[in-house]
Amino acid sequence: MLMIFELMKVVVRIRKLTLIIITIIFLIGSSYIIHWIEPDVFPTPFIGFWYVMTTVTTTGYGDFVPETTVGKVFGLFLYFFGIGLIGIVIGKIVEGFGIYRKLKEEGKLKYKGSGHYVIIGWSNKAKHTMKEILAIDDHSKIVLIDLMPKSPMDEETLFYIQGDPTDKEVLEKANVLYAKAVLIFTKDNVMDSIAADGKSLIIVSSIESYAKEKEKEIYTLVEILKEKHIPTFEHANVDEFILADEALSDLMAKSAVHRGSGKLVMKLLSRKSGVDLWKINKHQEWKTYNDAFEDLKRAGANLISDRNDFNILTKLGEPIPAEAELYIICNKATYQKIK
User: Fold this and answer.
1) Across residues 258-284, what is the average pLDDT?
2) Cβ 225 vs Cβ 196: under 8 Å
3) What is the CB neighbour count within 10 angstroms for residue 238?
4) What secondary structure letter does DSSP report for 115?
């Protein structure tokens, strides 16, 4: 008995892969041994394997039972050693899941998916943006890059990576080359707008440099605090930028002059209104803007712009260019039908 316990102590210290190999050899070997000891009761190694598995897992159906003394002694060996071995294997598996969960929570693992959204810099704005993305795109995945010691949220759709977003290895771990978009946020309650925008500029420059090195296109969106910094970000090839301070000021001004307009804009931006802003490509049967306008109207959608051009109503008779990117307002069901 003491020898078995000492043997168990050695088994516990064995590496997981070695332990799995030993367990497989033990189970298969035991199946052939019991078949060799009692060929009448266990006519095939598979029947022996069935007996070994029901024994070491403590299931014990009792449909096959050794009849000889040697067979019963071997059964006792399976009870003492086999059950302990299987218990250790299960413990190692549970331990492995725990280690994986800990590494994932601490942002030490690599994201291997594609078509995801990468958020750089955690803040209340980033959290709200994440929720909006998940509401709009049901199957989306979010990868967060930040320097926090662990993930800010325990969400299945959020994959956290700890590290410096200007580091190439961190960008590789986030698999940014295959992301739908990379969103860069500033921290909450920033006092120094120059330093905040400067930090964002360094991050986006690192991303663009990495994309150029890999000869890939990465779609980047950056939160900018000051309008005067826009030319610098344009020079860094940022695809889109959001002016945090100016956007709020513009909305407040419009609400003051045209009462209720602020509520209208906020409802359009929020998924709670039931409708949203969607981008669609040109359909082959649409030759002019009027064709698209009328077809979309029948489907229950409003055509409002082609890229940044909102003057659609003044050019309904004009042909739609091949590179057109049309924006519509409608509910999600209508958008899915049109798409």
Assistant:
1) 76
2) yes
3) 22
4) S
The pTM of this model reads 0.65
* Residues contacting residue 87 through CB under 8 Å, at least 6 positions apart: none
Q: Phi/psi at 38 (nearest 5 deg)? A: -130, 80
DSSP string, 245-272: HHHHHHHHHHHHHSTTHHHHHHHHHSGG
pLDDT of residue 166: 93
CB of 175 within 8 A of CB of 111? yes
Task: Please tell me the distance from the alpha carbon of residue 217 to that of residue 176, in angstroms, as a whole number.
Answer: 10
| Secondary-structure breakdown of the chain: helix, strand, coil percentages, each rounded to the nearest 5 | 55, 15, 30
Q: In the numeric block, which tokens belong to residue 301?
A: 């959608």
Q: What's the one-letter identity of residue 101?
A: R
Domains of the chain by start residue, with CATH: 2-105 (1.10.287.70), 117-248 (3.40.50.720), 274-338 (3.30.70)
In angstroms, the CA 42 to CA 74 distance is: 13
| Three-state DSSP class for residue 328 | strand
At 280, list the tokens: 């669609």
Q: Which two tokens stand for residue 258?
A: 């045209």
Task: Convert the pLDDT of each residue in 231-267 to its tens digit.
Answer: 888 888 888 888 776 666 666 666 767 777 777 777 7
Contacting residues for 11 by C-beta, under 8 A, at least 6 apart: 19, 22, 84, 85, 88
CB atoms within 10 A of CB 303: 22
- Contact criterion met (CB below 8 Å) for 107 and 169: no
Tokens 């990379």, located at residue:
182
The backbone torsions φ and ψ at residue 182, rounded to the nearest 5 degrees and listed phi first, read: -115, 120
DSSP state of 79: I
- Does position 14 have pLDDT exceeding 60, yes or no? no
Structure tokens at 50: 């069935």
Separation CA 88–CA 178 (nearest Å): 40
As beta bridge partners, residue 222 has 184, 241
